[in-house]
Amino acid sequence: MHPSIKKTTTLILLILTTIGLFSACQQLKVDSHPIKVMDFNVRYNNPGDGINAWPNRKAEVVSMIKFYDADIVGTQEVLKEQKEYLDQSLNNYNSVGVGRADGVDKGEYSAVYYKQDLFDLLDSGTFWLSSTPSVVASVGWDASMERISTWAKLKNKNTGKIFLIFNTHFDHIGQQARVNSAELIIRKIKELAGSSPVVLTGDFNITRDNEAYKTITNGGMFDAQYKSILPHHGPTWTFHGFESVEFLERGKIDYIFVNSKMTVFKHAVLSDKFDRGYPSDHLPVIAQIEIN
Q1: From CA 289, how far away is CA 178, in angstroms rounded?
Q2: Count of Cβ atoms closer than 10 Å to residue 58 Cβ
Q3: 169 has which bridge partners?
Q4: 3-class secondary structure, 238
Q5: Nearest Cα to 126, choosing from 140, 111, 116, 141?
Q6: What separation in angstroms does the CA of 8 have from each of 15, 16, 18, 20, 22?
């Protein structure tokens, strides 16, 4: 073969190979259906918060969810009037959850919001973080008040894949309650999810060195921050108390966990601050994940 012909043939083969690889990558991109999960403690409607009270920041809470285009949001500290506002403002989402004080609408919700055009709800429920999880308003161990976990079994309309999300809020006082709550959550995940993919969101009121955190991670759940393919983005803390907490004392107490059936592409703590201030005393956590 003439050298010039051989060179041309090699070049054509190289071009065709490159096109094939590009097409394959594009196909993988098309076939991929990652979802964005957010955890957001919105801070309960406390008039004593003054300029940081709910009426002055509720629009910013909604703006955060919409701007980051979360597909699923695990919320904490949502009172009835706050949930009504979120339900109205997030009109492309459905939600599940009940008030923890009466199992209906009294007290704080740990509501789960999900995009109605993306997911079908197959099942859902709420249990109390106590030794009697099915007893409404039961208080567990050394907890200061009733605490709950709300869960939803969802089917992705694009892929047909089914997974469960658990959302919770651990006690801020009782350490034994936090450890026992972690054990209960892991037990409920095994009971309700079996071998299905699982996401766990919440304000856990614990840092990584807490026994309750280790109970969760030893129970088959992984902190999405450390499972993320792209390194973590944003602060390493989530609670700031509307900046009333000294910077060095701020800790990460809000998390997204996943089990081994999930791949985490990105993870971030969102420190967006508006002209008036922060939308909550907690920073939202967001992760882009996909069922393997």
Answers
A1: 26
A2: 18
A3: 203
A4: coil
A5: 111
A6: 11, 12, 15, 18, 21
Say how far apart CA 62 and CA 70 lie, in whole Å: 11
188: CB partners within 8 A, 6+ apart = 127, 133, 149, 151, 166
Cβ distance 83 to 95 under 8 Å? yes
d(CA 16, CA 109): 56
Helix, strand, or coil (residue 193): helix
Task: Return the percentage of the chain with pLDDT > 70, whole number.
Answer: 89
Instruction: Confirm if 252 and 289 have CB atoms less than 8 A apart.
Output: no
Which residue ranges of the chain lie beneath pLDDT 50?
A: 3-30
Token match 């429920």: residue?
125
Helix%, strand%, coil% for the chain, nearest 5: 35, 30, 40
- Does residue 141 sit in helix, strand or coil? coil
Q: Do the Cβ atoms of 130 and 136 come closer than 8 Å?
A: no
Distance in angstroms (rounded) separating the CA atoms of residues 32 and 206:
34
Cα–Cα distance measured from residue 110 to residue 113, given in angstroms and rounded to the nearest whole number: 10
The residue type at 112: V
- 119 contacts: CB under 8 Å, gap ≥ 6: 71, 72, 154, 155, 156, 157
Strands 262-269 and 285-291: antiparallel
Q: How far is CA 280 from CA 10, 90, 137, 273, 290, in A?
A: 60, 17, 26, 10, 28
Beta bridge partners of 264: 228, 289
pLDDT, position 1: 52
Smallest Cα–Cα separation from 291: which of 266, 257, 260? 260
**What pLDDT is recorded for position 26?**
42
Residue 109 confidence (pLDDT): 98
Rg (the chain; Cα; Å): 22
Report how far residue 157's alpha carbon sits from residue 114's, in angstroms, rounded to the nearest whole number.
12
Q: pLDDT value at position 2?
A: 52
What amino acid is encoded at 22 in this protein? Answer: F
